[in-house]
Amino acid sequence: PSWLTRRLALVVSVVVLALIGWGLVAGPSTPSYAVDTGTGNGGHHDIELYREIATRVADGGNYYQVALPLQAGWHFPTSPVATVREPLEAWTVAALGATGAQILLLVLLVVAFVTMLARLERAASNRFEWYASMLLLVVTATTFLVPGALYLHECWAMTLILLSLAVRTDRRWW
Predict the structure, then answer these.
(1) How far is Cα 93 from Cα 32, in angstroms, rounded to an integer?
(2) Minimal CA–CA distance to 132: which of 9, 26, 41, 6?
(3) Distance between CA 89 and CA 11 in Å, rounded?
(4) Low-confidence residues of the chain, pLDDT below 70?
């Protein structure tokens, strides 16, 4: 029934807003494993690793010949195979430079947001669903506020998945 849907939506909204408020009050935190030199990675973190890989690829290095020794040298795992990221992000940063890749990522994000905004306008059964969906998109996109976010594969993946969901229709499912 619609009254139950509205109440559930209200509960979910209150929980989401409470979590957002809690996050704003608590402020940013960096887990100890991200900065603790005792973890074995020499104090390096993911963004530094991916930035260095992209720099070395831009200097002409082969992605895997650069990534594997660097990850091993910095004491990051190299197995199982999924721990070595796919090369597309490094190739993009190497080809466009950090500024160009950042601009591309933000343009794709804006296009995805505008497209998703229009898609949700048609798909949402009421304004509340639309506002809640947009709030979720904005909260998710705060990931891009992290310095060096362009080196995080998750930001590229989120943007491309959002864009693919925004342009998907029943007639064009691919």
Answers:
(1) 28
(2) 9
(3) 38
(4) 1, 27-43, 172-174
